[in-house]
Write a structure and sequence with these properties.
- The protein has about 400 residues and is of the alpha/beta class.
- The protein folds into 2 domains: about 105-185, SRP54, nucleotide-binding domain (Four Helix Bundle (Hemerythrin (Met), subunit A)); about 195-395, Rossmann fold.
- Helices cover about 45% and strands about 10% of the residues.
- The chain has helices spanning about 5-30, 100-110, 115-125, 130-145, 150-165, 170-185, 215-230, 245-255, 270-285, 300-315, 335-345, 365-370, 395-400; strands at about 75, 205-210, 235-240, 260-265, 290-295, 320-330, 350-355, 375-380, 390.
- It has a 9-stranded mixed beta sheet with strand order 1-4-3-5-2-6-7-8-9, with helices on both faces.
- The N and C termini lie far apart (about 100 Å).
Length: about 400
């Protein structure tokens, strides 16, 4: 019996050692199954370049208390489930440089069905410009959704310039038209995206708009723009109502190695997801947190109030630096109605105009800016992943006239 006792003790000791290794092995497996480039809130926080070292304590150990009325249950800061066996790993892509996009988008706009610039050039190149011609100029501008006030302003300026010129060559007409169009598109408006990290917090951006304008796609494309500019980005999937919206956003993020904070509960509180995304962005010291919101009809008071709540909850952690309103350029004047309502609920700081290549109504750029006093900051001219670029007034006018 005395000979068996040491053997039994040895077996018990060995089992204890093996039992202690199991959690370590499981944690290692979890880390391996994450897609390349994604980051979990439980990972150690790495110090930013030039900052003081951060201890290797997990970010998840920080205080997760939320403001009153915000439910954090069911939130997930990973883009991959624990058991990722059998899932396709999406390779990380390198987004195109921003400068190259501008040239390609301009070429696409030149080929688009725009009547504004070409129609004006033809009218103003007429041998005789009488009242009938000016009526046609005015009609062309109104049909291009320029808006009544900007149309009258532009027609008055053109009348004065043509009277001074007298005899005109096509080249002179193009020069004066270019100059006046650039003035009315207004190159003096600040179109810079407010995405500079603060001393101790990331820049926070919200993307809003009605159903079907492409907000989630715009967030994904804009993430590519920021990554191309060497920004460290984190996405927040606060569109919790549309089926698969969070997965769609996470896929966009995975393509460029950007993590996504999302909820596993369908219909979860959008404000809670936005709050947790900003919290994770602060913990992980990223440059920019981008929050995708659910599409909502501008005439639904409850939904619009909820959007205001999302912004207020986020601001308990960090200032919202940029609120981008996504508009479909093909909706014309209806887009103006949407813009007015959204600007009353949240402080819109910039416009993203999508599908500009699918409309002849380029004047919507001017109309929106005049209505809100807010610049168009980004334009989309296609379905490709890199078909989004900063808006430039002169490049836009040149494309209209070519």
């Amino acid at each position: 019996m005395n000979d068996i006792l040491p053997i039994i003790l040895s077996i018990v000791a060995a089992l204890a050692v093996i039992g202690g290794l199991i959690p370590v092995l499981l944690k290692t497996r979890k880390n391996i199954t994450q897609y390349p480039g994604t980051r979990d809130a439980n990972d150690p926080v790495l110090p930013r370049s030039g900052s003081t070292a951060v201890e290797d304590s997990p970010a998840a150990a920080t205080d997760r208390r939320a403001p009153d009325g915000v439910d954090l249950e069911g939130l997930d800061t990973t883009t991959v489930p624990d058991d990722a066996a059998g899932l396709e790993v999406i390779p990380v892509e390198t987004p195109l440089p921003v400068a190259g996009r501008l040239m390609r988008l301009r070429e696409r706009l030149v080929r688009s069905n725009n009547i504004m610039g070409k129609g004006l050039l033809a009218l103003l190149s007429s041998d005789k410009i009488d009242e009938n011609v000016w009526d046609e100029v005015e009609e062309t501008l109104l049909l291009a959704d320029l808006g009544t006030e900007p149309t009258m302003q532009l027609v008055d300026a053109l009348r004065e310039r043509v009277k001074v010129l007298g005899t005109r060559t096509p080249e002179q007409v193009k020069v004066l038209l270019r100059e006046e169009l650039i003035k009315i598109v207004d190159p003096t408006m600040d179109r810079t995206l407010n995405v500079q990290r603060h001393a101790d917090k990331p820049a926070v951006m919200m993307v809003v708009g009605v159903n079907g304008v492409g907000k989630t796609t715009t967030v994904g494309k804009l993430a590519r723009v920021l990554v191309a500019e060497d920004k460290d980005v984190l996405l927040g999937a606060a569109d919790t109502f549309r089926a698969a919206a969070a997965e769609q956003l996470a896929t966009w993020g995975q393509r460029v190695g950007v993590p996504t904070v999302k909820s596993d509960i369908e219909g979860a509180d959008p404000a809670s997801v936005a709050y947790e995304a900003v919290k994770a962005g602060i913990d992980q010291e990223v440059d920019v947190v981008m929050i995708d919101t659910a599409g909502r009809l501008q005439n639904k008071v409850g939904l619009m109030d909820e959007l205001g709540k999302v912004k207020r909850v986020v601001e308990k952690l960090a200032e919202v630096d940029e609120v981008l309103l996504v508009l479909d350029a093909t909706t014309g004047q209806n887009g103006l109605n949407q813009a007015r309502v959204f600007s009353e609920v949240v402080n819109i700081t910039g416009i993203v105009l999508t599908k500009l290549d699918g409309t002849a109504k380029g004047g919507i750029v001017v109309a929106i800016q005049k209505t809100l006093g807010v610049p168009v900051k980004l334009i989309g001219l296609g379905e490709g992943a890199d078909d989004l670029a900063p808006f430039e007034a002169e490049a836009f006018v040149d494309a209209l006239l070519n």
